[in-house]
TrEMBL record:
Keywords, comma-separated and alphabetical: Alkaloid metabolism
Gene Ontology MF terms in the entry: abscisic acid binding; protein phosphatase inhibitor activity; signaling receptor activity
Family assignment from sequence similarity: Belongs to the BetVI family.
Transmembrane region(s): none
The protein's name: Bet v I/Major latex protein domain-containing protein
C-alpha cells in the first residue's frame, strides 16, 4: 500500500533565504534543543548520501527514540530536499520505504511556501501499521524552522 500526506505553510521571507536554512544540516540542528536530544551525522556533509541518526527527546510523542535517515536529494536550483528511512524506524514496522520531501516555493519577492510531503510504501501484511504514520512531527519541524526564519530575518 502506497500513501502520502502533505501540508504547506507560508512564511514571509524570500524563498532563497528559506532555502539557505532548509537546504542545509542547520535545518535539523536548530530544532535539537526542543525536539531532539541530539542528531549524529554518521556519514556525509549534508548532501545526498548523508546518514543522520536523530535521538528524540522523551515526552515529544515521537514513535521512535532513534533511527537512521539518509538525505537522498538536495536540489538547490528547485529548492527540494528529500530524506528517506535508512535503518530502523518505519522500516522496522514493515514499511518498504518511508520518506519526507521538503520544498521551498517562491510566492513573491519576500514570501514563500514551505511544503512537506510524507510518502510511504508498506508491505501487504503490515497495512495496519499505517495508523502510525503522521505528518505532525514534520509540520512541527517546518513551523519551528519558519519561526526561526522570521525571528532571524535579514531586514
Amino acid at each position: 500500500m502506497i500513501g502520502t500526506l502533505s501540508d504547506e505553510f507560508e512564511v514571509n521571507v524570500s524563498a532563497r533565504e528559506a532555502w539557505a536554512l532548509y537546504g542545509t544540516l542547520q535545518f535539523t540542528y536548530i530544532c535539537v534543543p526542543d525536539l531532539f536530544d541530539k542528531v549524529d551525522v554518521l556519514k556525509g556533509d549534508g548532501g545526498p548520501g548523508t546518514i543522520l541518526q536523530p535521538f528524540t527527546k522523551p515526552g515529544t510523542g515521537a514513535l521512535f527514540y532513534t533511527y537512521e535517515d539518509e538525505i537522498s536529494k538536495v536540489d538547490d536550483e528547485n529548492m527540494v530536499k528529500e530524506v528517506r528511512a535508512h535503518k530502523g524506524g518505519y522500516l522496522s514496522l514493515g514499511f518498504n520505504s518511508y520518506g519526507v520531501r521538503f520544498e521551498v516555493i517562491k510566492k513573491s519577492k519576500n514570501s514563500c511556501i514551505t511544503k512537506v510531503t510524507v510518502h510511504y510504501d508498506v508491505k501487504e501484511g503490515f497495512i495496519s501499521n499505517t495508523s502510525h504514520v503522521s505528518i505532525e512531527p514534520f509540520t512541527a519541524l517546518v513551523k519551528y524552522s519558519n519561526n526561526h526564519l522570521i525571528n532571524n530575518h535579514k531586514k
